[in-house]
Each structure stands twice: as structure tokens, then as C-alpha cells.
Amino acid sequence: MTGASTHLVPTGAVLGGTAALGVLLVVTRLRRRRPTLVARVAPGLRSWSAVSRLLDEDPVTTPFAVLERLVAPWSTDVGRGLERFGSSRADVERRLARAGRRDTVEQFRARQLVAGAVGLALGLAVAVLLVVVRGASVVPALLLVVVAGVAGVLLCDQNLSRQVRTREERILAEFPTVAELLALAVTAGEAPVGALDRVARTAHGALADELSAALAAVRSGTPLSRALEELADRVGLAPVTRFADGVAVAVERGTPLADVLRAQAQDVREAGRRALLEAGGRKEVGMMVPVVFLVLPVTVAFAVFPSLATLRVGM
């Protein structure tokens, strides 16, 4: 018993000293954290938004939002490396604007970094499984991990390009209707700015959002022609550029605007029909594949099988 007590004394002393040191640190920290006058007054002077975060127009939809915030400090260095092998900063900014996203380049680079990390993790899991189960070599397994990481980064970039194409298609689909609504409002006696405001408030879609952004710039003091020019630069589509130029010229020179808008809407519809016919011509060969390799063999089998059955019965 004496030996056991001798061994317990140092252990108890260490535990007691550690606990006392922890209590001392907590008490010292609490004394140092006395709130100052600025800290007490600041919450009452801070402006809070009356809109709930649940109603945010651009909520975070990625399941890795916390991870993106953790890797954000390294996004600048990663972005410099990606600019050497991929898209530049200016190109990313342009595509983010054309996609209608409010993310900054640093946030997009952080998202790319997260996608690359997820790709590396998946590639590492597959590589370990192949090495352990199949006995694969280490070099191909490491190559698989690197390829998976690069694929994650590239897929994030390709997803942004796909969002740009999807939004451009929506804008082209909405443009004829928006142009005709503007022409109707101008014909009814509305001024160009008032017609734009009315259409932006009543319509819903990507083009209506762009018109709302242009009107916000006009209300802040930007000339209408300049705001429409910025809209055309953001969208990057030829019909929208012609629309901006037509409205700017009509406002500056007083030319009739309704006829110009109707003509532009008709041109976009004709361009859509031509694009649809061209897409159908390109898909014609693809549509022949199931006919030749699926429908035709089944038809031949149904035609030949009764004859073969009759010949077997006759023999």
C-alpha cells in the first residue's frame, strides 16, 4: 500500500497543478475581457437588415460552404497558379458576370480548391482500394490521384461555362417577349426609362434582372446610354448589344423606338428558328443510329422468323 501511495502522490500533484493552472487561465482571461464602451454601444448603433437570411435571393447552395471559407485565405495563391494553366482573372470575372453570379474571383477560386480537394480524396480512396484489393502498382495509383484532383478543378470551371451558356439561352428566349413589351409600353406613351422600369417590375427572368441592374445604375446617376452599354458588356450577346444601341440612339436623337424593338424581336425569333434547323440537321445522323442499329434489326427479325419457323416445320 505504501508503494501505491508513493506512486499516486506525483500523479495527484500533476493533476491538481494542471487544474489550478486551468482555473487561473480562465479567471485571467475573464478579467481581461471586460467590455469597453465601444463594444457596449456598437450593437445598438449597428444597422441590421429587416430581410431574413432565409429569403436571401442568392443563398449558398453548396454543401461545402464552411470548407470554402476555411480555404479562402489560400485562394489567392491557388488562383495565381491556376491562371498559368487555366483561365485568367479577367476571364473568370467576365464569365461570373455573364452567369449572373455575385461571387468574387477569390470565392470562385476557393470553390475550385474545394472541388480539387474532393477530387483528390475520391482519387485517393479509389487508389488505396485498387492497391489493397487488386494489388495495383503505386505509380498508376498516384497518377490516378493527381488526375482526380485536376479533374475536380476543371469540372468546376466547366460548370461555370455551362451556367453561362444556360443563362445566355434563357436571355435569348426572353428577349423577343421583353422587346415587344417595351414596344407596347413606348407605344402607349411611356418614356424609355419608364418603359424599362415597367417591364423590369412586371417581367421575371435573367433579362429582367439585367434591366433592373441597369435602372439601378441610372437612378444612381449613370446616363441611360452608359448603363445600357454596361448591360450589353455584361451579357455579351449581339442581340442585346443591338438593343442597347437602338435604345440609346432613340433616346439621344428622338427616333421612333417601338418599330426598332419589334424588328429586333423578329430578328431574334428568326435567328432562333435558324439555330433550331441547324441543330436538327446536326442531330440527323445521330437520330439514324437507333433506327439502323435497333429498329431495323428488330423489324428484320420479325419478318424473317416466321419464314424460318415455316421451313423448319416443313422439313
TrEMBL record:
- One matching Pfam family is T2SSF
Q: InterPro entries in the record, alphabetically?
A: T2SS_GspF_dom
From the UniProt record, list the coiled-coil ranges: none
Transmembrane segments in this chain: where? 12-30, 113-132, 138-156, 285-305
Boundaries of every Type II secretion system protein GspF domain copy:
180-304
Question: Which lineage ranks, top first, belong to the organism behind this chain?
Answer: Bacteria, Bacillati, Actinomycetota, Actinomycetes, Micrococcales
| Protein name, UniProt field | Tight adherence protein C
Q: Kindly give the membrane topology term recorded for this protein.
A: Multi-pass membrane protein
Q: Where does it live in the cell?
A: Cell membrane
Q: Which UniProt keywords apply?
A: Cell membrane, Membrane, Transmembrane, Transmembrane helix
Question: Is the keyword Protein biosynthesis in the record?
Answer: no
What do the Gene Ontology cellular component annotations say?
plasma membrane
